[in-house]
Amino acid sequence: MSKKEKSIMKLATAFAMAFGIIPSAYAMHIMEGYLPSGYCIAWGAICVPFLAAGFFSIKKSLRENRKSITILAMSGAFIFVISSLKIPSVTGSCSHMTGTGLGAILFGPSAVSILGIIVLIFQAILLAHGGLTTLGANTFSMAIAGPFVSFGIYKLCRSLKVNKLVSVFLAAMLGDLFTYCVTSIQLAFAYPSEVGGVGASAIKFLSVFAPTQLPLAIIEGILTAVIIMALETYALPELKSMGFSKEVG
Amino acid sequence: MTKKNKKIMAVLLLLVCLIAVIPLFAIKGAEFGGSDDAGSQMISEIRGAEYEPWFTPVFETMIGGELPGEVESLLFCLQTGIGVGVLAFFMGRFVERKKWQDK
Hints:
The complex is a heterodimer.
Chain A: H1 3-18, H2 37-64, H3 68-84, E1 86-88, E2 93-96, H4 100-107, H5 109-126, H6 135-159, H7 164-190, H8 197-234, H9 236-241
Antiparallel strand pairs in A: 1-2
Chain B: H1 3-26, E1 33-34, H2 35-47, H3 58-63, H4 69-102
């Protein structure tokens, strides 16, 4: 990060802590108008430093390695595809996946926040899915919290010498599930239950989202692993130059 | 791609299809609405009253009503289409490149 970028980062962080403006908070699955405005603003503000970091991280990886732009585009496209497919689940309702695991594993979690917010804005404006007021909360759950967990799990698995594809699977799956956990907690903060408060409320929301999401998280894990397999076969030079694949495939 | 990898991939993709399709047959007569809607029902349940969203989506305000289902599926398809297009384009390039390099 250059000096200028660093100061911008500091500014963004200070901005987030001091004001928490940017009312366009959008959470992945919290619908338009369903979060009180205070929460919208707060979640939006929390996202700002992550987005700034993501912007610089993307800039840096592109500067160091121009070729990786194709992989970046593919990671973004993967989120587009995956998050547009509503899949029926065992509970009798439909949900969709996040697709953020792939980008998080390849480019690091902060870069994905930028990719994620693009998808979220698209869905909020055109599809009335999620919303502009809940953009911050949705960005936090889908484009920040989920990817960070994916990235952490992937690193952990790799350092424990778990097979690469298994690590990818676990990372993407748990990242997806965690996204929904965060959404539940966000809703719980806004709507604490009368008996039991935030905790009881979080469990209630989780009981709605978690069983629906579990099979989908497994699908997401599998698909991410398949994409990685394909990339390792055909785009090995790019992955190597990004430092992702060291061994010759 | 080695033969073994191809096999793994085929099995995995088949598994994905099965997980996605089985609920449709297993739970007959279910609505398969969005889990977002289930979420808003839960909000009403916790609050004990119907919740009135304080902001309607910009697009719905502009067209003065709810987005028609057909148009919504069009836009969802558009999103999928953009994504698949980009993925397929680059993947195709990579596959061709490998073919030439291997020669």
